[in-house]
Amino acid sequence: MNSKLVLNFLGRILLYFTLILLLPLLVAIYYGESPNPFIIAQLVSIIFGTLFMALKPESDLLRYKEGLAIVGLGWLFVSLIGSIPFVVIGVHPVDAFFETMSGFTTTGATIFDVVETLPKSILFWRSLTQWLGGMGIIVLFVAIFPAMAKKGEALFQAEYPGVTLGKLKPRVEDTAIVLYIIYVFYTLLEAGILYALGLPAFDAITHAFTTLSTGGFSTHTSSIAYFNNPLIEGVIVFFMVIGGTNFALHYYLFKERKRIYKDPEFKTYISVIAIATLILTIVNLEKFDIFNSFRYSIFQTVALITTTGYTTYDFDTWSDGAKAVLLLLMFIGGSSGSTAGGIKVIRLYLLIRYSILQILKVAEPRTARIVKYGEDVIKKDVLDEVAAFFILYIIIFAVSSVLIALSGFDMVTSASAVAATIGNVGPAMGLAGAAESYAAFPYHVKIILAIDMWIGRLEIFTVLALFIPYFWIKRW
Amino acid sequence: MLIVIAGAGEVGYNLAKDLSHNYEVIVIESDVRKADEVSNLNVEVVQGNAATLDVLKKARVDEADIFLAVTGHDEVNLLAGLAAKKLGAKKTIVRVGNPEYVNKPIMKDHPMGYDLVICPQLALASAMANLVTIPGAVDFVSFSGGKIDMIEIVISPNSPVAGKRVAELNLPENIILMAVYRNGDLIVPRGDTELLEGDRIAVVGTFESIAKIKEVFGDPVVRNVVIFGGGVVGSYVARILDKSNLNIKLIDSNPEVCENLCRFLKRTRVIIGDATDLDLLVEEEVGKSDVVIATTENDGKNLLISLLSKNLGAKKAIAKVDKGSYVNLFEKVGVDAALSPRRITYAEVLKQLRFMHVETLAEVGMGEAAVLEVEVKNEKLSGIKIKDIELPKKSIIGGILRGDECLIPRGETEIRAGDRLLVFTTWDQIEEVESIFE
């Protein structure tokens, strides 16, 4: 491992990060609030950034393992610095770290029981962390700063969610720019629509931030239920679906529209939403009339499968059948190349096809078969990686759930909290339910959950690779 | 003595050429044109398949003292060897390329009746593995069945011994600096002989003490070794080195080969990739390696890999060269040691040919000189001082092996019957030297 280069890049990331901190600083000044939380964070960021930058690497060797280390640690460092504003306003450091990690990983799990009392600049910062984390901090830096773009490929891969099938643009920085242009476009569009529907500008912008990033932080304690407006919910549902779609498809929307209808992942994604909505609508008929049943069901379905985690109704009070469906949606997650979390539709699609292939193979061992994704043949090593991802996801889910259950929490709370954090969803069930917050968990549980978010957002491998001592110790 | 050689390839031809000076040689070759070529030498040629009894009889194998099977086909060699033994050849030596037939470089008294089976690929691999740990070493030969080793070292410009006098070297016990080759001349080192850059020196010592000379010849730490190519040679080198505590990377482009290698290599990291891909070499930090060993099937590729790696910063490059005539060229352009499986076969066969009266024979330098291990059997020589022994002009007694000891020969040193002497000499004088001690 070229550790000095890794630290040098981390320093660079921290210095760039101070520029981002200017945005909430301006908001604080605009609303006449104290800018100190952000200034202190900037100072710390500059100090560490300069220290790391001062380390001159012996070689500019940046391989995939250095890429993993830069991205994995980059997210950790940014979350640590990003939590400083919360600490300054009096939040416990573990809580602040949890909240920031939850922000950057677009989880949306919060430790604030009431958010309306928080300063506007802090609320803005929460939403901004989600917007940045949605498309990816490193991708942003790759898009903007040529110094990062030079070695962008390895970094891009380490942060990219889902299965990579081809490139949008030959140059990685161009890909990053295209992705961010689409992202900014939709964000502005949603903010405009919400503003036109009568939301205050601040709410419109922050909610646009957390919808497109499928984050789920709201500026209101009761989330989207606060607005109690079917039209606004409809708009948010639409943009959540957009956020959970592969951004490459948005690009093809203007280029070659046919690809979108042909994309197996997109078709599966939409079908799952439709089926889950139908089931939930029927199940929920015992509680609501048909309009409200559909209204709440489609919102919660989309909010959980896209791992946004907004709520319009406390789904913890729904029947066990409905909750089981919702828990399943948390695992499925959005599409690859989207801002959503979870296992991702494409992985499940490939895994199911692969499993069926194995059944057929047992019955007809001599027949040659391959796994196809649309026109593409999926290679064996991609399938291996997908299978490993699934297994690791389940193992991490199981281990974390047991750890939390051992800390004295019930099964539903433990399992759903882990599913909601590793899937970057946000609200869980039981004690961490939609109407509750994560404030009640002890600190060690919060740290476990924050790590789960980190692992989940960077798609397991990037983070777990950091813990392989051999990468760090071995000098050659 | 009658020697029958089956196969007039590179090895067969050169053996026939060198042996024909002193012995009666008959060559069997199936290819008409090659047969014609060999007939220009001072040998008799029988044209035909060496694995057929008629041809063998025609070549008088029944009278042969030694039958050598070195054709390009393993099966022909093996079959011809069996047939020759049946017909009455006294010794049979067989070359086998495929390591499935033998699992070590040199096998004596093979259960199928061969006196000696040589696998040049494996012999090459073990020679390469031996070269890895000694800085500047370009050749490594064992005498007396491994009790005594001789290493040939090239003095590099940054070697700590460059410019030093022999007396200042502080050589460990049981180690002798036997000879210095400078510009093709053989110099007998004395205390005041200065070692210069580019000298090839021959150092002899016991196996245990050889390990210590690394300290004298500087930068002894070999940690990182890259092996290119996972074929017969590459995988055998890896197998030998895998038991040491070196960091080893093996690069091969065939994923199946790589997966197969993982089964028996525990410490070696097997990397799938093209060895001539510069990006891969940079990524795997080949430049930080102490030794690179190029063992791919292609001579040109091996040269390229060696030069690329050295250019990136690798300290020492060892390359396999199939064509023996390229060895000098390789070493001229910057490969530290170029080893040819054919040359190794040639040297091994020559060594083994002398097992009746000469123990070991090694080639030193660019092939101009030879080191001969002879046992003193001539009772008349017992008790005589070295300065009183009349040796041919270009021959020197370089070392005396008495029991497990390695003595430095001085003019006043007396030799005893039963001593083994390492004599530096030239090819044409070998017979003469031998006759003195018989």
Structure, explained:
The complex is a heterodimer of chains A (476) and B (438). The N and C termini of chain A lie close together (8 Å). Chain A is mainly α and 476 residues long. Chain A has a two-stranded antiparallel sheet with strand order 1-2. In chain A, a hairpin with a 2-residue loop joins strand 1 and strand 2. Chain B is of the alpha/beta class. Chain B folds into four domains: 117 residues, Rossmann fold (3-Layer(aba) Sandwich); 76 residues, Regulator of K+ conductance, C-terminal domain (Alpha-Beta Plaits), CATH 3.30.70.1450; 121 residues, NAD(P)-binding Rossmann-like Domain (Rossmann fold, 3-Layer(aba) Sandwich); 70 residues, 2-Layer Sandwich (Alpha-Beta Plaits). Chain B is built from 14 helices and 23 strands. Chain B has a seven-stranded mixed β-sheet, with helices on both faces. In chain B, helix 9 links the parallel strand 14 and strand 15. The longest helix of chain B has 14 residues. Chain B starts with a strand and ends with a helix. At the A-B interface, loops of A face loops of B.
The Rg value of chain A, from CA coordinates, equals: 22 Å
What is the string of helix and strand elements of chain A? HHHHHHHHHHHHHHHHHHHEEHHHHH
Q: By CATH's scheme, which homologous superfamily of the largest domain in chain B applies?
A: NAD(P)-binding Rossmann-like Domain
Q: What characteristic shape of chain B results from the CA principal axes?
A: globular
Say what oligomer this is: heterodimer
- N/C terminus separation of chain A: 8 Å
- Would you tell me the structural class of the helices and strands of chain A? mainly alpha
Q: How many helical stretches of chain B?
A: 14
Poorly predicted ranges of chain A (pLDDT <50, ≥5 residues)? none
Given this structure, which CATH class of the largest domain in chain B is correct? Alpha Beta
- Strands side by side in the biggest sheet of chain B: 3-2-1-4-5-7-6
* CATH architecture heading of the largest domain in chain B: 3-Layer(aba) Sandwich
Largest beta-sheet details of chain A: 2 strands, antiparallel
Helix content of chain A: 55-70%
